[in-house]
């Protein structure tokens, strides 16, 4: 099977690898669509993300969906022909975190495209059947693949307890910020403010339904939020840029008693925050790491037309063109590139 392998930074090789056989509890999936995530691009450019270092050739891609072509002997809830979205992180199922239900916090998680685990830029993936979610007719495999970033958005909104009538401020209008926008709307947020430093990203966010889009490189965010919220502040602020000034700004624009959810990964682990302001304003700050139990919700939102993910796709390329696709994905105005296979 054709497989795109990152052999060193900025270099893919197309290899012919043996097709895997599904284990007893697995499904073998013919991959159809795989999104290019910022983390894929980071591994492509730098060969590492923090402590995760690409030491051996690695298959990238963790936003994937495809068609079941074979099932293991114990699998009763999937059959060949099912179209499925693959949840990319498979936990150990035995540790304390798994047993208390926080399977996304499992320290032995096998997460696609995170060294040393291979991802989905390949023709076939064998994957645990219970981490494969059937897509209804109305949901395409491209949408199925984007259940992954949508899941990040759903989890962030759950962490922030976004509810009906809330004003949600999202910093960063990349794919994650835009998926938080979808999830926040679905959770009942009536006012959503997006920030960015790139005008094209903000114009796109407005087209996708942001009520206010603020370029923080040009406009004073505190003043803009104060004006929009009659001086109260946002109920929930979801940080989805990873930019240090943006992380710092979250506590200035959240309302007293509001919630800040940190999703964006800062390049420096330590970001100075005014803790007295946090205490005085009784602000809840939550980290948000990947997601748990979000795929069913993501598929339902797409099937019901309550979330749109297809609209963020800028281009779809073939596996053979993965190098050019990654270079294109790095352009500052591109939101989402996909690799699509038709094997
Ligand atoms: N916590 C998690 O589980 C999780 C999961 C996925 C992604 N992430 C992180 O979330 C962040 C967003 O992911 P993405 O794929 O959308 O990234 P991205 O780089 O495509 O988007 C980030 C956006 O933030 C904008 N930005 C830069 N500086 C800004 C500032 N000061 N204020 C506002 N916006 C600013 C950029 O112009 C860009 O549009 C990244 O840091 C990524 O690593 C975290
Ligand atoms: C969650 C996922 O999208 C992210 N890129 C990660 O590897 O954690």
Automatic annotation (TrEMBL):
Span list, region Disordered: 1-24
Which processes are annotated in GO (biological process)? protein homotetramerization; threonine metabolic process
Q: Which UniProt keywords apply?
A: Metal-binding, NAD, Oxidoreductase, Plasmid, Zinc
Write down the chemical reaction(s) this protein catalyses.
Answer: L-threonine + NAD(+) = (2S)-2-amino-3-oxobutanoate + NADH + H(+)
**Enzyme Commission identifier(s):** 1.1.1.103
Q: One GO molecular function term?
A: zinc ion binding
Oxidoreductase as a keyword of this entry, yes or no, is yes
Recorded metabolic or biological pathway in which this protein acts: Amino-acid degradation; L-threonine degradation via oxydo-reductase pathway; glycine from L-threonine: step 1/2
Which residues does UniProt assign to the signal peptide? none
Q: Which residues form the Enoyl reductase (ER) domain?
A: 5-335
Query: What Gene3D superfamilies is this protein classified in?
Result: Medium-chain alcohol dehydrogenases, catalytic domain, NAD(P)-binding Rossmann-like Domain
Q: Which InterPro entries match?
A: ADH-like_C (IPR013149), ADH-like_N (IPR013154), ADH_Zn_CS (IPR002328), ER (IPR020843), GroES-like_sf (IPR011032), NAD(P)-bd_dom_sf (IPR036291), SDH-like (IPR045306)
Q: Does the keyword Hydrolase apply?
A: no
Q: Which cofactor does it need?
A: Zn(2+)
Q: Which family does it belong to?
A: Belongs to the zinc-containing alcohol dehydrogenase family.
Q: Which protein are we looking at?
A: L-threonine 3-dehydrogenase
Source species of the chain:
Haloarcula taiwanensis
Instruction: Print the organism lineage.
Output: Archaea, Methanobacteriati, Methanobacteriota, Stenosarchaea group, Halobacteria
């Amino acid at each position: 099977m054709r497989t795109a392998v990152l052999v060193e930074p900025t270099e893919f090789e197309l290899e012919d690898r043996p097709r895997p056989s599904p284990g007893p509890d697995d499904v073998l999936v013919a991959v159809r669509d795989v999104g290019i995530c910022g983390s894929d691009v980071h591994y492509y450019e730098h060969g590492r993300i923090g402590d995760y270092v690409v030491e051996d050739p690695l298959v990238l891609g963790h936003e994937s969906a495809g068609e079941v072509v074979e099932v293991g002997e114990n699998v009763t809830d999937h059959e060949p022909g099912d179209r499925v979205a693959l949840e990319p992180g498979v936990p150990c199922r035995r540790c304390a975190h798994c047993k208390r239900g926080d399977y996304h916090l499992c320290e032995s998680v096998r997460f696609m495209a995170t060294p040393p685990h291979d991802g989905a830029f390949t023709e076939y993936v064998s994957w645990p059947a219970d981490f494969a979610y059937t897509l209804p007719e109305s949901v395409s495999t491209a949408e199925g693949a984007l259940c992954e970033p949508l899941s990040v958005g759903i989890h962030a909104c759950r962490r922030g307890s976004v509810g009906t009538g809330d004003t949600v401020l999202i910093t960063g209008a990349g794919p994650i910020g835009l998926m938080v926008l979808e999830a926040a709307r679905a959770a009942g947020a009536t006012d959503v403010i997006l920030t960015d430093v790139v005008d094209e990203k903000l114009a796109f966010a407005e087209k996708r339904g942001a009520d206010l889009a603020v370029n923080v490189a040009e406009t004073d965010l505190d003043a803009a939020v104060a004006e929009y919220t009659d001086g109260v502040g946002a109920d929930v602020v979801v940080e989805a840029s990873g930019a240090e000034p943006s992380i710092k700004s979250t506590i200035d624009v959240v309302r007293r008693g509001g919630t800040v959810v940190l999703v964006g990964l800062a390049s420096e682990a330590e970001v100075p925050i005014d803790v007295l302001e946090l205490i005085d304003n009784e602000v809840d700050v939550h980290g948000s790491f990947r997601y748990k139990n979000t795929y069913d919700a993501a598929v339902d939102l797409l099937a019901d037309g309550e979330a749109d993910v297809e609209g963020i796709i800028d281009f779809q390329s073939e596996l053979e063109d993965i190098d050019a696709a990654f270079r294109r994905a790095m352009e500052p105005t591109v939101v989402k590139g996909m690799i699509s296979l038709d094997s």
